[in-house]
Specification:
By secondary structure, the chain is mainly alpha-helical. The chain contains four helices and no strands. Helix 1 packs across helix 2.
């Protein structure tokens, strides 16, 4: 696990600064379908950015199964 994205505040900051997604803490548990701007292009950008931050590969298949941003954060921190 990386300490760079260890907490959800850091993860939300990354989503905001790198992807332009502004999320409150409670938004992390909302289904991804609730975010009209969320799409596969943003997912690929997220993977690229996170891999750069953590210095290693992220399991994309696990991210594809995530249904919320909190689940994505869990994938990132469990890698």
């Amino acid at each position: 696990m990386t300490t760079t994205l260890a907490d959800t505040t850091e993860f939300r900051t990354l989503l905001e600064e790198e992807l332009g997604l502004y999320l409150e803490e409670e938004d992390l548990d909302r289904p991804l379908d609730d975010f009209p701007d969320w799409d596969s292009v943003l997912l690929l950008r997220l993977v690229t950015v996170v891999e750069g931050v953590v210095g290693g590969r992220i399991p994309v298949a696990d991210l594809l199964q995530a249904r919320t941003f909190r689940q994505m954060h869990q994938v990132v921190t469990d890698r």
